[in-house]
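Hi F.,

I've been meaning to write this up properly since the lab meeting, where we talked about keeping a consistent format for the predictions we share between groups. The idea is simple: the sequence comes first, exactly as it goes in, then the structure tokens exactly as they come out, then a line or two of notes. No screenshots and no reformatting. I'm using this chain as the first example so we have something concrete to point to.
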Amino acid sequence: MTFEAIMNDLSQRKYAPCYLLAGEEPFFIDEVTRCIEQQVLAKEDRDFNQLVFYGNDTQMEQVVHAARQFPMIFTSPQVIILKEAQQVRTGWDLLADYMESPLESTILVIAYKKKFDKRTKLYKTAAKSGVFLDSTRLYDDRVPEWARKYAAAKGYSITPDALMMLIECVGTDLEKLAGEIQKLEVVLPKGTKHITAEIVEKNIGVSKEYNIFELQKALAEKDVLKSNRIVDYFGTNPNAYPMVKVISILYPYFAKLLRFHFVRQRPPAEQASLLGVSPYFLREYETAARRYSPRRLVDIIHLLHIYDARAKGAEGTLSASSHAMLKELVYKILH
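Output, unedited:
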């Protein structure tokens, strides 16, 4: 079952008797767990009908025993939650046996933050008797759209520029992105429903003029002066703009620009879908494609590989600073 489908059911107060939430993306697991923990029972009933276990100091026998008990307040279900379940080493067969015939008066949540073996009896019984969530990490190119939808669910629209600035500053960690969007909810003036680059700059702490997204745009336009100004700004704050981070953003951009050459004759919606970008950015790709031929882009991608290796010390002791290497890389991209 997908995360969206589970959250939709929970919003309608449709509960399954057991949930096995597993995978390498903790955000979706935590969101479902948090929703059940805070929504199913009234606050005054949680001391009686809700138990939370933690994997590092729990035996599975305790969890199963608790799940088999009847609620102390019979008008409400009993909620049993096991967090960090991946730390529990034994007793999984007991859990599988319970899930074959779970109590209707119990809602059992197992939060397992690792990839789960789908060949096991537990997976089969959980999928049959309750809900199984396969919480896989999003590819980086899917994170912007996820963040846009997350903001929309909170009642906000966000400009593409603001979205890219936010991701550049925070990274692709969903928990951190959600936290920053929630922070904006608190600081934005009442009635403000549109998040702009100016708002992100003011409240998140990233420069609107000097950031990796703006460097990307300057390179796309072959604006030598602006590119060098941004690189020099990065040199004044190397901890915030390490070369490896800069390359990790530039590389997928130039890779997509190369791909754009081979899809540019298709309809815009199809172009955006194949590139994994917002249609808002297609004009920028069109402009950049006129300045960089496919052959040139292959050379640039090769350059990015070389300088990424150098930044990581693959060639031994670095003879030049990160700033000097970045200036050299940008010069070679532009010329």
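Notes:
The first strand starts at residue 18 and ends at 22.
The chain has three domains: 3-134, 140-204, 212-334.

If this format works for you, I'll send the rest the same way.

G.
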